[in-house]
Amino acid sequence: MTADGRPQAPLMTNTQADRVKEVARLAGRPSRLRRREFLAEGPQAVREALRLHLERRDDDGGGVVVEAYATVEALERHPDVAELFGRDGAPSLRRTTPDVLAAMASTVTPQGFVAVCRFVDTPLEDVLATKPRLVAVLVEVRDPGNAGTIIRAADSAGADAVILTGASVDPYNPKTVRSTVGSLFHLPLVIGAELDGLTDRLREAGMTVLAADGYGAVSLDDLQDASAARRFGAGSEGLVLQEP
Fold first, then answer.
1. How many CB atoms are located within 10 Å of the residue 214 CB?
2. Which regions span the lipid bilayer (predicted)?
């Protein structure tokens, strides 16, 4: 029996099972787009996905996590994550052998947890309607690790949202998800925003537009103003940001 009294499903041991293959296919973009689902891997990402899942269940009955998988060893090492699975409204959890989890995961050395999650992106209109004060915009950022790092930094800085323009990397790419270290589940994410007109829309929402440039003459510390709403734009690794 599980912590909440539900019957516990048998341990998954077959690495060739159809369900294992279906989960593993989410490492590829076509399957992600078709199903509008992606993988969260490791204790930190799965923990944050579960927390958001439970919050949304409380708010509107919806959920983020479709299903989750974990090894017995990982559940013992991370009792805080195991406790979340025992709460009312938590998604189903299947215990697996390490080999089965490795067959599902996109990493060479998985950390014992995999969750299948629904897309969490938000329409731009919904973000602007909340009157955000700090937004990070990724302009054609194509490296998954860099995109994830910016999302994580925006989360740490207290940003109200992250916007990715149309040519930017897929934020549901497993490498991007891993590099966010759970921050993907902390703040609204807008995907595929059209760059043309975006600056005007942000200014109309009352935001000051700034562009991040490693060779810029003004530091962010010099621009601190608690009364101003900000939008920071970060360009791709080989892109020169255009004058807004």
1. 4
2. none
Contact (Cβ atoms closer than 8 angstroms) between residue 219 and residue 190:
no
d(CA 225, CA 200): 21
Q: How far is CA 70 from CA 25, 34, 244, in A?
A: 18, 25, 47
Question: Taking the model in full, what pTM does it have?
Answer: 0.85
Cα–Cα distance measured from residue 155 to residue 183, given in angstroms and rounded to the nearest whole number: 6
Can you name the residues that pair with 6 across neighbouring β-strands?
A: none
In a domain, 79, yes or no: yes
Confirm if 87 and 5 have CB atoms less than 8 A apart: no
Query: Is the domain of 161 the same as that of 205?
Result: yes
Instruction: Give the tens place of pLDDT for each residue, 155-202.
Output: 998 999 999 998 899 999 999 999 999 999 999 999 999 988 898 999
At position 162, the amino acid (one-letter code) is V
Q: Report the largest interatomic distance among the alpha carbons of the chain, rounded to a whole angstrom.
A: 62
Residues 35 and 50 in one domain: yes
Residues 99 and 56 in one domain: yes
